[in-house]
Amino acid sequence: MPRNQEVIRQWKVLHALESSRRGASIDALAGELEVTTRTIRRDLAALQEAGFPLYDERDEHGRVSWRIEGRAFGGLESGFTLAELCALYLGRNMLEAVAVSPFQRDLGLAFERIEKMLSPRMRQFLDLLPSVLSAKSVPGTADGGSSPDVVARLLEASLQRRVARMRYHSFSSAREKDYLVHAYRLAFAQGALYLLAFVPEYQDVRTFAVSRIASVSLEKQTFVPERDVAGDVFGNSLGVNTGPAVTVELEFAPEAAGYVRARVWHPSQEIRDLPGGGLALTMRVCHDWALRSWVLGWGAHVRVAAPPALVADIERDLHEAAKRYAGGEGASPGPGARTRGRRTRMLAT
Q1: With 206 labelled, which of 143, 155, 198, 235 sits at a CA distance of 20 to 30 A?
Q2: Cα angle vertex 79, ends 73, 85, to 5°?
């Protein structure tokens, strides 16, 4: 049997023992995991050898049950059970895949503490699991991420309701610009940090990529929030934009129907079958660049049915793309461009 399957089964044995108040018999474990009792005995011996606190106990009827001492770590004030501690350790590779500077260092220190709570043999056993449980890192910023000092000042400005002055690099004007802002919230999305801040100059809440904030200073003046910011700040968007939602209807070809049906693309989505094996996907989302790029990513396998403004934008994007391939002039508007018929707020330009 491959080593990977053996390790996964032994993890299931640990979880089964942790979940059972009265322990579990070898026969019960064998039945649950659909293996022989001999295999379970080998697994229990291997786990004991790895340092996991397993023991057997005989009741008044002579029945033997195996148990795990879930809080076997002296000085572990957090109250984590053994299974919870192991799960945190195993989740390291997934958390590190989505961690963003400046939290990566603190995350690493936290996991170092968890490692010290586990014996070397336990770590050796658990280190085998990431070989069958991996996570792909989300796209991050090309410049190395956000400055810890900038993030610290933004957090202070938000918590203390301090007016902040910051210098921000604008892609649209290709220069740095100074902003006076009321920092409302930091939000992590798609591998980067974003600042939601009210800009008195514009009398509106704008979104800023924290990686493009060059410097931040705090004023003595405080502020009272003038706008409400939803808990899920980018909830209406497939990307990191804010704005009103519109009803979008897309018709997918049979070749793509299975892939579309297998995922939840947005909480508002509704799917219905179309004649011939295709499907229609309806969502309430922003009409923004993130939506356009997602639709274009399906190529010839999708047709936009509504709204008309999105139909026009996609037609124009495809036309401009065809001109590029034909060697002609012209390019579709970039993500900073305003889209016809919408009021979506893009990143500050």
Answers
A1: 143
A2: 65
